[in-house]
Model the fold of this input.
Amino acid sequence: MAIISSKQPAADGEQPPRARKKNTPKPLATPEPAVLADGDSELLQAEIATSEEKLQEESLRPSSIQEYIGQKELKGVLDIAIQAAKVRGESLDHLLLYGPPGLGKTTMSLILATEMGVNCKITAAPALERPRDIVGILMGLQPGDILFIDEIHRLPRMTEEILYPAMEDFRLDITVGKGTTAKIRSIPLPKFTLVGATTKVGSLTAPLRDRFGLVQKLRFYEVDDLTLIVQRTAEILSMSVTTEGAAEVARRARGTPRIANRLLKRVRDYAQVKGHPVIDEPIASAAMEIYNVDPLGLDWVDRLLLTTMAEQFNGGPVGLEALAASTGEDSHTIEEVYEPYLLQIGYLQRTPRGRVVTMAARKHLGLKGGNDGGDQLSILG
Done:
């Protein structure tokens, strides 16, 4: 059988057609950097954070109890617990830390791990949605390790049930099979320390709360302690700040180290832009005025709430929903974010009829008249 090809043979003297070349895109030529005047290249090049700057940010947390500033009663209790555990060669007892956010609960857990010479695994309760999440973490622990669970009051019920035998007997109970063939297998766990942190200790169930051998509260910091924290942070960040400048920042930090460090960074921005190499009291005060933070740490939303109650509602009492509608703020945000601090410093009172502005708040805002809610002293001095 003859095979007929669709390609015709080349005629005598003719060259066969050349194969087509693939259209391979040519690599784009890298443009040469433009020649700039001296100093212009530094302005046009984006600055990339160096590893040294990242290390500085991480080193803001103290690494030992001696470096930890403030919380003297807590440090005394934990120092005794650490020394006793080292003498017996055991792991630390389970610890529950509670208090407002930003006071150093996570930092304290890292310090405990450093002092004991063990590892610290950090997680949050909302991340432990399924039982297998906590099982995987527990199975990966080494003897003496510290497991830190933030917002532990938000643990799912099933996850909390798994923690009961793990905390008491250091074992993990796993159900194998279903129905009549189901069996419970107990897997031994290495002795570890569970450190739980919460802002709502009353939301913990009694069985979980009672399994902690140590229950300690973190309190708000005094201005003197916050001043030392600001000075330490400034030294780590290679900043020059006077004692008066550090105290000015500390007074506006609401007794919270996290807020103090945040405000210090904003003051650093202001000082660098304005060309001030040293942060003193006038520079810190001027920077805080730009960010609407007054000498007591109240921002413009705090002052808006107090002014609205004092002027529109004659000092109160006023309901939460009415206050939210008048200020344009969410009622939950007012109740959970702004009210706690105003209550702590005695500028706001909660009564069965509603919220009332105190006379101390009126004096701070420069307002007169209205109901006298009682002159109360600030907890922060």
